[in-house]
């Protein structure tokens, strides 16, 4: 049971039924013509799912503050109808929603960005313009106007985004604030902008609505705020009548992972606890909190009063209702992959969720009961097959799912051997129990035959892929292994290993061969004693790797170029730290028992190894296709069986869901 998580909280005129907040997420379609109805359905579904409070994606107070082409600004009454649609639909579901006001400062992706000082961010190519006194006063007033408009639109409150390295955070930190006027210098000067904004916002929303401020608990960049400065700012916010302090962790330019799956769950609660101990108002913990058990434990330990979860609400809109109704074990857990949500956002596309393709597409992906019940065979229990079978079964079809292995999950089960990816296994577990609940017949350890499939009305071929074999002299020698040999645990690597192919699978294999991760705080130089501004310290010396690894690829570009934008750099840094060699532009010549002969920089070289792991892509597995077509069976081909060029779980789940809704 979750007594603390489920206890209500009164904030001014607003009563939260529980301590779960959905954290702010930019979804990437905010400026699309149909954005408001889509957003309204997205938030309404989460409200229906029982969340205590929803915080919207960031809305800028003026055009300079917007993300860029896909950002939104609320500066006049012209958009109020759109926002009212959101608040009306959320309230109709019994929910509460606060609008986040976010000025992106030097992180905006457009030419007119501004900042306290004209210093370019390391993750941007644009130098911001230094704000004048008039810009600053104007911006403070615009925050108040935007807040007033939010109140007029029916929001229950606003959140002031003061973390993650955005404009207000840029004013707070010496790293980005070199001003010598009253907006810079000592902390009183640097926090003046934030406190004036908070006053302006309160003026805009009046005394009854709630105000949250998202404050950076630890900046994780050099010349970030010192430990006592964070506390001083928090106390000043309390004195100004802020109702909730929400946690931000690390700037976007920080070279420390903060929310990827490699970050231990609850890794940042120490930073929130320091602030919580110093103030009397409720404080919310955030980042890598995805299970109700951990959330309850944080509250029980007194490290926070609320928990803010963002991605877990993409993965399962009904998260809070399941906690409330004693069904927590049936939560579709976020696996921290960033593949469906943050990676697309940082690449200028829209967010959804890998394990819940319906997220952000609530209107298009509506399930309606099937009018004519059909018997459907789904061959293959990987991402495409599982998701298709589940949607079809939920809609009332008679579904039989055939899986040759002894468990569902397909390529997903290979995550088991990759340190930090263990939580990926929650996904097949979730689908398996939901399939059973929806009445699907699951036949594990069974390879379907054409004869068996003959009696079904429709067949979905989702048999996935098989690893592409290496076509090279010596490729059949015993030292050569396929990636699934290693990732399934069937084979172990030797002392010296060559990995052929440096895409996502090659990286997973390298990480698996390195074994357990180093302790997180040591590897990334995180100072939990918070003795230096920003909370960084030199990383510990990396332990010697258990084996020597050389990764290679034929492509000339840098290895890891195809990895996710928000996780690729983490994996690259981890492998580099452990001394993994990475070669690009390699020509493979031949393999013999001593290793692999290659051409590298126009020179012949023997890479002496005892194990060669082949990670050079996949081919579709379509064993039954020709026979089924010859028998005149309607066959649907989805997932890797249709297109294996890129092993793409995001696409596979989406294709499966789409087809399951259409059958
Ligand atoms: P890259 O390829 O890793 O780097 C490019 C080059 O820059 C260098 N670099 C740096 N050098 C020095 N110091 C630094 N701090 C630094 N940072 C980068 C790199 O070394 C590299 O140089 P090279 O090696 O080539 O010589 O980076 P990229 O430009 O491809 O991508 C950068 C990213 C923005 C993707 C990035 O760095 C990101 O991965 N950072 C982590 C972000 C993250 O995970 N943040 C925490 C979670 S998000 C969160 O908590 C709140 C999110 C707020 C909104 S959503 C809520 C509001 O509505 C996010 C919306 C963003 C919309 C744009
Ligand atoms: Fe979580 Fe991955 Fe879904 Fe993002 S795409 S919400 S990280 S499961």
Any overview of this molecule?
This protein is of the alpha/beta class and 663 residues long. It has 21 helices and 27 strands. It has an 8-stranded parallel barrel, surrounded by 7 helices. A 5-stranded parallel β-sheet has the order 15-14-13-16-27. Helix 19 links the parallel strand 20 (548-552) and strand 21. Helix 13 runs parallel beside helix 14, helix 13 (383-394) packs parallel to helix 21 and helix 17 (504-514) packs across helix 19 (568-577). Iron/sulfur cluster is lined by residues 311, 314-315, 334-341, 353-355. In the N-terminal section; belongs to the NADH:flavin oxidoreductase/NADH oxidase family. This is NADPH-dependent 2,4-dienoyl-CoA reductase.
Relevant terms:
8-stranded parallel β-barrel; 5-stranded parallel sheet; alpha/beta; binds iron/sulfur cluster; 30% helix; binds 5-mercaptoethanol-2-decenoyl-coenzyme A; 663 residues
**Integer average pLDDT:** 95
Shape field: globular
Protein structure class: alpha/beta
Strand % is 15-25%
Terminal CA distance? 39 Å
Query: What is the CA-atom radius of gyration, in angstroms?
Result: 26 Å
Largest sheet: 8 strands, parallel, barrel
Instruction: Name the ligand types.
Output: 5-mercaptoethanol-2-decenoyl-coenzyme A, iron/sulfur cluster
Low-confidence stretches: none
Secondary structure: number of strands: 27
> Number of helix segments?
21
Task: Work out the helicity level.
Answer: 25-40%
Task: Please state how the strands of the largest beta sheet are arranged side by side.
Answer: 3-4-5-8-9-10-11-12
Query: What is the chains' assembly state?
Result: single chain
InterPro entries: Aldolase_TIM, FAD/NAD-bd_sf, FAD/NAD-binding_dom, NADH:flavin_oxidoreductase, OxRdtase_FMN_N
Protein name: NADPH-dependent 2,4-dienoyl-CoA reductase
GO molecular function, one term: metal ion binding
Domain NADH:flavin oxidoreductase/NADH oxidase N-terminal: 5-328
């Amino acid at each position: 049971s979750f007594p603390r998580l489920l206890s209500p909280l009164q904030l001014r005129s607003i009563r939260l039924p529980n301590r779960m907040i959905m954290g702010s997420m930019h979804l990437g379609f905010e400026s699309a013509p149909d954005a408001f109805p889509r957003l309204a359905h997205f938030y309404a579904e989460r409200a229906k799912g029982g969340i205590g409070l929803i915080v919207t994606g960031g809305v800028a107070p003026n055009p300079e503050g917007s993300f860029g082409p896909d950002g939104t600004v609320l500066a006049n009454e012209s958009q109020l109808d759109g926002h009212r649609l959101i608040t009306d639909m959320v309230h109709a579901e019994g929910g509460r929603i606060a609008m986040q006001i976010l000025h992106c400062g030097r992180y905006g992706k457009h030419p007119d960005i501004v900042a306290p000082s004209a210093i370019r961010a390391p993750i941007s190519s644009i130098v911001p313009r230094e704000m004048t006194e008039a810009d600053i006063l104007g911006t403070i007033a615009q925050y108040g106007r935007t807040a007033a408009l939010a109140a007029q639109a029916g929001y229950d409150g606003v959140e002031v985004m003061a973390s993650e390295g955005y404009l207000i955070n840029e004013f707070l930190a010496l790293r980005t604030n070199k001003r010598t006027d009253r907006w810079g210098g000592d902390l009183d000067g640097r926090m003046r902008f934030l406190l004036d904004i908070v006053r302006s916002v309160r003026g805009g929303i009046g005394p009854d609505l709630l105000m949250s401020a998202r404050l950076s608990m630890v900046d994780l960049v050099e010349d970030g705020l010192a430990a006592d400065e964070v506390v001083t700012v928090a106390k000043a916010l309390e004195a100004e009548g802020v109702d909730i302090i929400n946690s931000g962790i690390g700037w976007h330019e920080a070279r420390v992972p903060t929310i990827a799956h490699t970050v231990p769950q609850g890794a940042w609660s120490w930073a929130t606890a320091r602030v919580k101990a110093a103030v009397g108002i409720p404080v919310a913990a955030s980042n890598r909190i995805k299970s109700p058990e951990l959330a309850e434990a944080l509250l029980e330990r007194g490290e926070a009063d609320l928990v803010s979860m963002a991605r877990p609400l993409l993965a399962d809109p009904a998260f809070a209702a399941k906690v409330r109704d004693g069904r927590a074990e049936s939560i579709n857990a976020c696996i921290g992959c960033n593949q469906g949500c943050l990676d697309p956002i940082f690449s200028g596309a829209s967010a959804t969720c890998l394990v819940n393709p319906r997220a952000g597409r609530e209107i298009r992906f509506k399930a309606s009961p099937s009018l004519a019940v059909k018997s459907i065979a789904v061959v293959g229990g990987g991402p495409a097959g599982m998701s298709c079978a589940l949607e079809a079964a939920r809609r009332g079809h008679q579904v039989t799912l055939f899986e040759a292995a002894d468990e569902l999950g397909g390529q997903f089960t290979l995550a088991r051997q990759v340190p930090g990816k263990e939580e990926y296994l929650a996904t097949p577990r979730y689908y398996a129990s939901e399939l059973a609940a929806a009445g699907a017949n699951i036949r594990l350890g069974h390879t379907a035959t054409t004869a068996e499939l003959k009696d079904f009305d429709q067949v979905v071929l989702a048999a996935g892929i098989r690893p592409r074999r290496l076509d090279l002299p010596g490729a059949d020698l015993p030292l050569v292994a396929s990636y699934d040999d290693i990732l399934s645990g069937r084979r172990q690597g030797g002392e010296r290993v060559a990995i052929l192919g440096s895409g996502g699978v090659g990286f997973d294999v390298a990480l698996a061969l390195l074994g357990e991760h180093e302790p997180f705080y040591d590897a990334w130089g995180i100072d939990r004693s918070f003795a230096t501004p920003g909370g960084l310290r030199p990383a510990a010396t990396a332990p010697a790797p258990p084996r020597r690894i050389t990764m290679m690829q034929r492509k000339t570009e840098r290895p890891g170029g195809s990895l996710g934008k928000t996780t690729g750099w983490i994996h690259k840094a981890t492998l580099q730290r452990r001394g993994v060699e990475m070669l690009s532009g390699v020509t493979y010549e031949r393999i013999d028992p001593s290793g692999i002969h290659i051409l590298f920089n126009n020179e012949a070289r023997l890479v002496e190894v005892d194990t060669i792991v082949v990670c050079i892509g996949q081919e579709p597995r379509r064993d039954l296709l020709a026979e089924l077509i010859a028998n005149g069976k309607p066959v649907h081909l989805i997932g890797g069986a249709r297109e294996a060029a890129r092993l793409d779980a995001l696409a596979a789940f989406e294709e499966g869901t789409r087809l399951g809704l259409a059958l």
